[in-house]
Amino acid sequence: MPYPVSKSLAERIEALYGRPRADLQAHAATTGHPTMLAALLAACSTVELAEKNIEFQRERLLHLVDPGRDIGPSTPGHLLDCSRRIAEAVVIRDTQAQHATAVLQSLHRAPAAAPVPAAATARAAHAR
Predict the structure, then answer these.
(1) Cβ neighbours for 43, distance < 8 A, ≥ 6 positions apart
(2) Residue 1 Cα to chain centre, angstroms
(3) Dmax of the chain from CA atoms?
(4) Whole-prediction pTM value?
(5) Beta-carbon count within 10 A of 121 CB
């Protein structure tokens, strides 16, 4: 199943930094200090993990309520546990996504530096 929220965040991060997520993760891992990029990638990973957990718990819940399955004395407890875990994962996903989106909205790509014309470079070198 695709994970739409984390996919959208990853695409926005890639667009902002102009590189694929894998490259950005490798770059973030090489810096020795916290960066905005590392924080955004961590938030994206947290959202992705929450979405995976939602899907896993959903599948577990569907298995527990399968019409062909016998309902035992522990089934209601398992149903409540799945429901609680889904609710927790949704809260985590939504909170992390909201914060990451707010940060992404506050950032923008800096325009690329205009190349210096060769004539200006030659004049500067000649003036020395």
Answers:
(1) 9, 96, 97, 99, 100, 103
(2) 16
(3) 90
(4) 0.79
(5) 11
